[in-house]
Amino acid sequence: MSRILVLGGTGEGLALARRLGPDDIYSVAGLGKRPEGLACSVREGGFGGADGLARFIAAAGVDRVIDATHPYAAQISANARHATFATGTALWALRRAAWSAQPGDDWRMVDDWDGIMAAIAPFRRPLFTLGREPLQHLDDIPASQYWTVRCLDARAGTERARVLADRGPFALAAERELFERERFDVIVSKNSGGASTEAKLEVARERGLPVVMLRRPVLPEADRSFRTLEELLSNLP
């Protein structure tokens, strides 16, 4: 029996899970909505680090791990490399291509939170599309700024920030309306790649807004890496 373990959390990972059979496993962190209608089993929550993942792989009889996590999920990708090496299990990775700056873009590349704060210092109304990290800093917002944080968490904002609990895909028309209504003057983003959240970059380009872009982490090598889901599926036995 062949058994695949998909480490998910992306749209591509879920699309892959919909192609799996009852012997396979789709794993998600459990931070969003539990996927439904899958033929494979679904596992939610962490594994307890690389060693815990290795124990799970061995106990479940997994013979192929597919890393379809977010491009910024560097720790789980490192854990997957360690665990598959320790267990002699094949590791495939779906590495979504990054966005590239286009004519008219004003990207300011940064490496960490301190770089983000320095880059947005001259601005008043940033839109953060980094996930949950800005929520840890809502008490440190400069008096001259009002933040909008778009992420999966539904939680109250503060006098100086509001939280938009939403997830992609985001349509271009809706993004235009949001930008017009909220009058953002800078966008803070991860270079996630893919079409689901790319519309904000087009609107920023249209409005001449700078984008503070967090560089991608360097991810470990996999036995095989694929840029698209279609390429990966065509190589599955």
Automatic annotation (TrEMBL):
Pathway: Cofactor biosynthesis; adenosylcobalamin biosynthesis. Keywords: Cobalamin biosynthesis, Oxidoreductase. One of its GO terms (molecular function) is oxidoreductase activity. Transmembrane segments: none annotated. It comes from the Bacteria. Its EC number is 1.3.1.106. PANTHER family: COBALT-PRECORRIN-6A REDUCTASE (PTHR36925). This is Cobalt-precorrin-6A reductase. It comes from Lysobacter korlensis. The lineage of its organism: Bacteria, Pseudomonadati, Pseudomonadota, Gammaproteobacteria, Lysobacterales.
